[in-house]
Amino acid sequence: MNVLHLSAECYPVAKAGGLGDVVGALPKYQVGLGINAMVAMPYYDKKFVKEHPFDTVFRGTSKLGYRSFDFEILKETTDVLGFELYLVRIPELLDRPEIYSYPDEREQFVAFQLAILDWIIKTEKSIDVFHCHDHHTGLIPFLIQYSSNFSTLAKIPSVFTIHNGQYQGWMGWDKFHYLPGVDPSKGGLLEWNNCINPLAAAVKCCWKYTTVSPSYLQELKINSNGLEFLFELEGEKGIGILNGIDTEVWDPAKDPMLSFNYTKTTVKSGKEKNKAEICHAYGLNPDKPLFTFIGRLVLEKGAEKLAELIKEMMLRNADEFSFLLLGSGEKDIERDLKEIQTYLKNYNCYIGYDEQLSHQIYSGADFILMPSRVEPCGLNQLYALRYGTIPIVRTTGGLKDSVIDVQDEGGYGIRFENLELMEMIVAMQRAIALYQNQKKINQLRKQMMELDFSWNKSAQQYVELYKSLTLIP
């Protein structure tokens, strides 16, 4: 079975968040299950591209409305990622260093999708399933069914995965002419709230859509940035499949980014050594429980609450804990977190993104805080569990599906219900109290590291979904 994953991101080629991690791992695990999983993504002027060999396998010309553009399809020749990787390069459109935030971002991703379909049509490349990820590829299910240019692909099943329903790729009707061979009478399939909405179009037109956790599938019906009614209407098409993690990349026993590797049997000494190293580097006391936050500093993650929370906790529980933060995002949140650094002891922050530092923090921290407003799946808590770091999470989305509170049977994490200061304080105080029982902490660490949140189970669920749509045994 030939499955083509279409995405704006794929780790380690180009990553801005969890989408990149998923697309960099899921196809590899599917290949292990006998599926010919491939990834096609835009070309970015990134380190990975410069350091790996690529061949041009196709050159073509397409049109974005009244504008013609040349494109080429590049294939990574060594399959170093464990699957076939294809990049779409378009001069002056898809050849830039960054993934997002250009003023012509809509044109970038529409052109990407058109180039992919042109390539497949003209080369008659065999595809059994299109697996589209987020709104950047959301027009594919519509185009293969309702564009006369791509009608030969109409019988190929399309699966659409929603990694984050808050971002939908909205564009005005002045861009309708970008879509070739489309009868204007089909415009209703693109429309939501008086604009073209690629995410809504994908949900309407795909054969099946998936969310990255079962709980998020239900939450979209009550919180999806205006699409709540659509998810009610199309609910029978939806399936919730919890994300996994790449346990080859995230393995404390072999992780090359760590100074001290460890297993579940050596987790106590391994974490102590890594904690001592990172606390020394950032001026923190390794004898205290080390809390961390790793991620985007945005409202979606509850990050605007962090500075106030840390200040209040320092007033209530001074000298009882340390806090190290890694992240970047909204400038006012960054400013607040850097400002408290100037006068608080036992607190430090690194504003920016550093993959190696994140691995080191997971290995050294005792607790990771995730006060998310919205968390479709969340990968940080899964990485933390793999490294024996106890997650403190708000009960939402994939956090709800993957973290059981220590007060419940079989529990190993700490959960709170609402994004309110007092609830977060209580959760952190529970963690500080728990830390005093080192026998319990070490038992929890071993328990967490034995949990299986790899892609094995989830990849199999996707394969079963593909087979149900294609009738390929």
What are the salient characteristics of this protein?
single chain, 473 residues, alpha/beta, Rossmann fold, nine-stranded mixed beta sheet, six-stranded parallel beta sheet, 17 strands
Describe the secondary structure blueprint for this structure.
Elements lengths: L1 E5 L11 H15 L3 E7 L4 H5 L2 E11 L2 E10 L7 E6 L15 H19 L5 E5 L6 H7 L11 E5 L28 E2 L2 E2 L1 H8 L2 E4 L2 H6 L8 H6 L4 E3 L26 H15 L8 E8 L8 H11 L5 E8 L1 H11 L5 E5 L3 H10 L2 E4 L9 H7 L3 E5 L2 H6 L11 E3 L4 H15 L2 H13 L4 H16 L3
Parallel strand pairs: 1-2, 1-6, 2-5, 6-7, 7-10, 10-11, 12-13, 12-15, 13-14, 15-16, 16-17
Antiparallel strand pairs: 3-4, 4-5, 8-9
Helix pairs in contact: 1-16, 4-5, 8-11, 9-14
Give structural notes.
The chain has 473 residues and is of the alpha/beta class. It has two domains: 2-246 and 456-470, Glycogen Phosphorylase B (Rossmann fold); 267-452, Rossmann fold (3-Layer(aba) Sandwich). The chain is 36% helix and 20% strand. It has 16 helices and 17 strands. The chain has helices spanning 18-32, 47-51, 105-123, 140-146, 198-205, 214-219, 228-233, 267-281, 306-316, 331-341, 355-364, 380-386, 397-402, 421-435, 438-450, 455-470; strands at residues 2-6, 36-42, 54-64, 67-76, 84-89, 129-133, 158-162, 191-192, 195-196, 208-211, 238-240, 290-297, 322-329, 347-351, 367-370, 390-394, 414-416. The strands form three sheets. It has a nine-stranded mixed β-sheet, sandwiched between helices. The chain has a six-stranded parallel β-sheet with strand order 14-13-12-15-16-17. The radius of gyration is 23 Å and the shape is globular. The termini are close together. The model has no long low-confidence stretch (mean pLDDT 97).
